[in-house]
Amino acid sequence: AARAEVLVGPRAGADSSIVRLGAGRVMAITTDPLSIVPALGLAASARLSCHLIASDLWTTGIAPAWASLTFNLPPHLGDADFAAYWEAMSAAWEELGVAVVAGHTGRYPGCDLSIVGAGTLCGVGDEGRYLTPAMAAPGDRVIVTKGCAIEATAVAAWLCPRRLEARIGAEGLARARASLDQVSVVADCRAALRVGVHERGVTALHDATEGGVLGGLVELAQACGHDLRVEQARIPLSAEAAGACAVFGVDPYWTLAEGALIATARPEHAGAVLDALRDEGIAAAEVGEVVPGSGKLRLTAPDGGVRAIETPEPDPYWPAYERAVAEGWE
Asked: How many Å apart are CA 170 and CA 56, to the nearest integer?
């Protein structure tokens, strides 16, 4: 049904929806899978699932408050394992300030890892302060936090540490494993939002996930209807991310990058946003600007060539992950 109070519904490039409640208040809502990634373990998988959903909601500028969860568990997942998963998830929700208010739990033949359910998260805020990717406007500066392939790097470090260590060394492997704690943009959003919103600071926030940083930039361009002019050489790419993607045989700019926040800010406030992020220990770089156009990414390659990208490329991560699991990489 078409309802007048739905201000932002499902659309390309939007992480969450916005519903008007009245009296100047709105509700932000998002939903995402819950997963158990065997290489990460139960507790880390639970925390990751919470932060993936919370990251999407925080891109609206509204803090999450309530969660409704469903668990469709494989029959072989025992009570003790589910208890460990749920206890870690409960701790993560408490850390994020989220109350679980409804849910469902069951075991069903045909269900298997790694997707074990889904969560819906919502929060309430002022109507004049919410953000969507559609709000990015010409002249805004484009900022990327942390860099490429963060989640892909973290998974590789825990899935096949010996293979990755042979490429990037022991210290590189340690950094890659530690990047699991960076697979979230909650802190990034909080820091950027402290500067201000709309004309006073940040105009749009977008979570780069499947499709990588370049896919996220294309989605943002589609959402706002303007072009993004970006220099690829300015997008951060760590040595461990480059190594992990080489092991997987994937392009780091187009692969799973949860933990990288794409933000746009008014030009006079972009420096303050970068400073706020760095004050929180979050690496960030200005990589380009929003320009008039029709929803394309105008990407300048390191060799100076420019191409216009209208649609994201398929994320190569999932086939690579499946191959690594099937072949028993260590």
From this structure: 33
